[in-house]
Design brief:
By secondary structure, the chain is α+β, with helices and mostly antiparallel strands. It is 60% helix and 8% strand. Among the domains are: 110 residues, Trigger factor ribosome-binding domain (Alpha-Beta Plaits, 2-Layer Sandwich), CATH 3.30.70.1050; 55 residues, no CATH class; 48 residues. A 4-stranded antiparallel β-sheet has the order 1-2-4-3. A hairpin with a 3-residue loop joins strand 1 and strand 2.
Amino acid sequence: MKIKLTKLPKSEIQLDVVVDEKAFEAYREKGFKAIQQVVEIDGFRKGNAPEDMIIKKYGEMTILEEMANIALRDAYVEAIKEHKFNPVADPKVTITKLAKGNPLELTMIVPIIPEVELPSYKNTAKEVVVEEKIEVTDKDIDDVVEELRKGRSHQHAHEHEGHDHADHEGHDHSQDEVTIPELNDEFAQSFGDDFKTLNDLRTKIGENMKLEKEQKSREKRRAAIMEKLIAETKTELPDAIIENELSNMLSQMKADVTRYGGTWEDYLTHSKKTEEEMKASWRTDAGKRAMSQLVLHKIAEAEKLIATEEEVEVELVRLMTQMQDVDEERAKGYLYQALTNEKVLKFLEQSS
């Protein structure tokens, strides 16, 4: 078996395979047995028909094609061993020569994990500064407290509705019950034992708002770091990786629509777009997502920032208590990637 590898653009390779006449003929028994199991010949139980009768009814090419299928699977495994590449999707196969008593010749086009030339990622991360003053003003806290008061007044009205809806004289009391509670220690205590005074409540609101603003600022900086890294990374993404990302995005969108009680058909009708049109509009975003994952993966490898089995197990237990019907193996794969990505992003943040 001869395998010649040629590099193509966009992280694809071409494998030209020649299986000589003798080696190809050695696949005959396997090819015949596979066909014998599925064809039907009158007077014979399935799996028992003789070769000459199968050829008479279905033709010699039926067996040759099955031999070629088995041979190309072997050739593909052999090629991966010999040339050490990592495919990201199934190969596209073209059989260029197939005839009895001849060598088998075929071509495979294989999309592979691209070679990635990373920039100096620590320096890149250092250069990204998100100028943002994180402060929580008294007015910010006042606004939240006011929302809480309104929330409590509506709740109060709802609780009384139906109980005192009308008295004996037919007077409607439901409007009388809508009172906004006073801002005092008692109001604060209604939110739990942690709050003895109104000041306790205001302090906690301030702390939570600060944490939220810090989180948003961190996410903004992470996004800016990744944007810069993607722009400075040299690689060529195969179409298969982008198509895979688009399929993931579509699956996610379908799951979201279903979760909110809609149907996918209604959603398409409402958006006036076909699935293909949607995917076309997401293509740039899908490329960025795929690039982002590739860059994070390469940095994780270089810096040995890999999620451990223990870390994945801890998160898996947490996930399974929150969600029913979790596919354990898929969840593990997802968590491994998510935890590894988080380690890399933290590392990049701290590079400044």
